[in-house]
């Protein structure tokens, strides 16, 4: 027997669980959400966040505004979702590069492989523009989300370094600052490379970035030798 709550509801307000064309209601919702994520990446990454409207997003996605508000409260919410999606791509790319190496791989090799993988993704101007340009200065809400996301990514990087140098003695606060600085170097390089139309050859970019990371590696190894003596 149906509950009184459901019986008193307008039938149009009851979420449908029916399957149409092999898709459940949840599948259809997720598909539409992905269409807006894809549309957001294209528009935010080309004409820029401030020029994008819900109408333009709906046109790009091929959906109505009803379906936009089904998943997102406003364009800021979509921007944060697209940015998060880009971050997940970067994390997956880096973790895949690490998983492809031997467990005892040299730290230098690990860094080179991770940088190579990350800058392959950075060669997508849509991802780069959203990740380091469009997400900045939008609102306090987006700024807070961006800051938290960078700190989380820095934590992943610090964890990798600590796993390779388990005796490395560094306070959490200092470690976070160091890894955020490294991420900042990657970000500024990515922006400059993208805005130049990727004028500098990839090998030069990777060599320069490796030198930046090598500076920290050398510092860590020197501190370990000092502690051991």
TrEMBL record:
GO MF entries: DNA-binding transcription factor activity; transcription cis-regulatory region binding
Annotated Polar residues bias: 1-16
Domain of life of the native organism: Bacteria
Gene3D superfamilies associated with the record: Tetracycline Repressor, domain 2
Domain HTH tetR-type residue range list: 30-90
Keyword DNA-binding appears in the UniProt entry: yes
InterPro entries: Homeodomain-like_sf, HTH-type_TetR-like_transc_reg, HTH_TetR
Positions of region (Disordered): 1-25
Residues annotated to bind DNA: 53-72
PANTHER family linked to this entry: HTH-TYPE TRANSCRIPTIONAL REGULATOR BETI (PTHR30055:SF234), HTH-TYPE TRANSCRIPTIONAL REGULATOR RUTR (PTHR30055)
Protein name, entry field: TetR/AcrR family transcriptional regulator
Native source organism of the sequence: Aquirhabdus parva
Record lineage: Bacteria, Pseudomonadati, Pseudomonadota, Gammaproteobacteria, Moraxellales
């Amino acid at each position: 027997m149906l509950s009184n709550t459901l019986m008193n509801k307008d039938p149009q307000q009851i979420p449908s669980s029916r399957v149409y064309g092999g898709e459940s209601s949840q599948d259809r919702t997720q598909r539409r959400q992905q269409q807006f994520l894809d549309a957001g990446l294209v528009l935010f990454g080309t004409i820029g966040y401030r020029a994008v409207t819900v109408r333009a997003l709906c046109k790009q996605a091929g959906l109505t505004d009803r379906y936009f508000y089904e998943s997102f409260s406003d364009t800021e919410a979509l921007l944060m979702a697209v940015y998060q999606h880009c971050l997940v791509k970067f994390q997956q790319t880096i973790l895949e590069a690490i998983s492809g190496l031997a467990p005892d791989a040299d730290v230098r090799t690990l860094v080179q492989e991770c940088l190579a993988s990350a800058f392959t993704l950075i060669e997508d101007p849509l991802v780069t523009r959203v990740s380091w340009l469009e997400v900045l200065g939008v609102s306090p809400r987006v700024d807070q989300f961006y800051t938290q996301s960078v700190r989380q990514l820095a934590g992943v990087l610090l964890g990798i370094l600590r796993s390779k140098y388990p005796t490395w003695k560094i306070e959490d606060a200092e470690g976070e600052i160091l890894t955020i600085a490294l991420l900042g170097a990657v970000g500024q390089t990515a922006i400059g490379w993208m805005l130049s139309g990727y004028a500098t050859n990839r090998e030069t970019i990777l060599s320069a970035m490796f030198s930046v990371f090598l500076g920290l590696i050398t510092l860590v190894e020197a501190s370990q030798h000092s502690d051991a003596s």
